[in-house]
Amino acid sequence: MMRFKMNKNILALSLFSAFLALSLFSAFSFAINAQETTTINDVDLLTESINISTDSLENSALTQEQINKLDETTRILLADYQSTSKEYESLKLYNDQVQKIINSQIAEIANILFQIDELDKTNQKIVPLMIKMINGLEDFINLDVPFLMKERQDRLANLRSTMDRGDISTSEKFRLITEAYKTELEYGRTIEAYRDTINIDGVDTSADFLRIGRIALTYLTTDGSKGGYYDLNEKTFLKSSGSIKRATEDGLKIAAKQAPPALIQIPIYKD
Q1: Please, is 250 exposed, middle or buried when counting C-beta atoms within 10 Å of its C-beta (0-12, 13-18, 19+)?
Q2: 207 forms bridges with which residues in the sheet?
């Protein structure tokens, strides 16, 4: 009985050892298989990682190239923008200045239009006045001492012709009229010698005239044979004596600056 129990224990121990050995072998086989599987999987993963890295590098290079192109494009666009911005600022300053000039011209045009309107109103008053001034100047010349009559009559004719011209402004017409008045005024305080013709005994004769302001007008024929003076009372030329002829000769030399100033006696009307 005792022996049977021992055999039974030995048998159980043997079975346990065999089970343990089988378990260890199975575990070892599983570990080896697992390790082999892990190694294979690691190789696959490494290969895949290398492929991915290679693709990533290629993609990175392509991406970097695109970035470089975009950077170059961006710099070009930025340079164009900066250039355009400067040009815009310059054009803006120019346009602002031009606008100021335009505004000034508009204001000037408005002022000119206003002046034209006022001038039209003024013309309605000044044109009749200028005509009266010309008529008055003509009456004055006809009543004055008859010196340089052709020159003075021609001046009057030019004034009347000017009044009918539309290409001459009203202000210029008025200036010409006042100039004519000034010229007539100067005659009254100057001495002058000039050559003209005079009717003597029905014959037009060339003579040298001496004008002393508006108070005396004498003449001496160019051959020196005859002389005379304008009588302010008679309103006509009278023949003069020898003394008047000599005074006229002296006066002509003084007026022509051929002799120094001197006192001379010139009649202005008949005693």
Answers
A1: middle
A2: 196, 221
Per-residue pLDDT at 145? 92
**From the CA atom positions of the chain, what is the Rg in Å?**
65
What phi and psi, each to the nearest 5 degrees, are found at residue 66? -65, -40
Q: Is residue 229 part of a domain?
A: yes
Give the span between the Cα atoms of 215 and 64, in whole angstroms: 112
Which pair of structure tokens corresponds to residue 148?
């340089």
Range of the domain at 264: 190-271
Instruction: State how far the Cα of 267 lies from the Cα of 219, in Å rounded to an integer.
Output: 12
The domain total for the chain is: 1
Least Cα distance to 170 among 206, 212, 126 occurs for 126
User: In whole angstroms, what is the distance from residue 189 CA to residue 170 CA?
Assistant: 30
Residue 134 lies inside a defined structural domain of this protein:
no
Residue 14 tokens read as 């043997």
Asked, for residue 262, whether it belongs to a domain, the answer is yes
pTM above 0.85, yes or no: no
Please tell me the distance from the alpha carbon of residue 116 to that of residue 131, in angstroms, as a whole number. 21
Tell me: the pLDDT tens digits for 188-202?
Answer: 888 899 999 999 888
